[in-house]
Write a structure and sequence with these properties.
Length: 253
């Protein structure tokens, strides 16, 4: 991608902590604060439908009076669709459903918003999840000028996404420098033909920024909620910040 099409400011899981994460309500709230790009987590139901959820398990962010939760990826969509994904946050959001990737795609495409899909596989389904999410994203955004950016911490998931839809843009998520070496991650991102490296913001400094830029990558950071840290990343010349503080940072600035 010679011309990077994505905005600098990216709303984490829709609207960070102001609304129930990874729900359409969160996306709408983030949009009301002026955000035009959103990050979300996508995994597969047991019958292969991509939907939004961060955790492996259901207990933290969903509720169903008939059961206690369990592994999300081991349940079919007809059961997952009945869960309340809003009441854990606040009564105002009670009854908010888990969204499908298709539903979020419709919202984003209709409003001209951009999306960063973090692929979140259930253990044992890493490559398959990458393949299926990439296939669905390519179908949903067919004809769109700006497809979603597919990212993951999981290398097999990115391998699957690349094999299934090589034209879809990809980014490697990094939490820490494995064995203290930055080159290790640059090699992975290069082999996977990634367009971006998305780091824990503390990993970016003058040296790592220079190395990543020299290798041709765009540079994004998560999860940045402190104004001084955001300014540091801007001054370093990075290309995007993922934030919970949609009420604090002005995306037009």
């Amino acid at each position: 991608m010679q011309n990077w099409p994505y905005p600098f400011w990216i709303a984490h899981r829709g609207a960070g902590t102001l609304a129930p994460e990874n729900t359409l309500a969160a996306f709408r709230l983030g949009a009301s604060h002026g955000y035009r790009m959103f990050e979300c987590d996508v995994k597969l139901s047991s019958d292969g439908l991509p939907f939004l959820l961060h955790d492996d398990t259901l207990e933290r962010t969903t509720h169903d009076a008939s059961d206690t939760g369990g592994i999300a990826g081991q349940q079919p969509w007809h059961r997952l669709s009945q869960r309340d994904a809003g009441s854990w946050h606040s009564p105002a959001y009670a009854g908010e459903p888990l969204p499908t990737l298709e539903g979020i795609a419709r919202f984003c495409i209709a409003n001209g918003y951009f999306l960063n899909i973090e692929i979140k596989p259930t253990i044992g389904t890493e490559r398959h999840t990458g393949e299926v999410v990439a296939q669905h994203a390519a179908r949903l955004w067919r004809g769109s000028a700006t497809p979603p950016l597919l990212t993951s911490f999981d290398i097999p998931a990115l391998e699957g996404a690349r094999a299934a839809q090589p034209e879809m843009p990809r980014g490697l998520l990094i939490h820490a420098r494995e064995d203290g070496t930055w080159a290790h991650w640059l090699d992975h991102a290069t082999r996977l033909q990634c367009h971006a490296i998305v780091c824990n913001h503390e990993l970016w400094n003058a040296q790592s920024v220079a190395q990543a830029k020299a290798a041709g990558f765009r540079l994004l950071s998560y999860t940045v909620n402190d104004p001084q840290e955001a300014r540091r990343l801007i001054d370093l010349g990075t290309d995007g910040v993922i934030t919970d503080r949609v009420d604090h940072f002005q995306p037009g600035s």
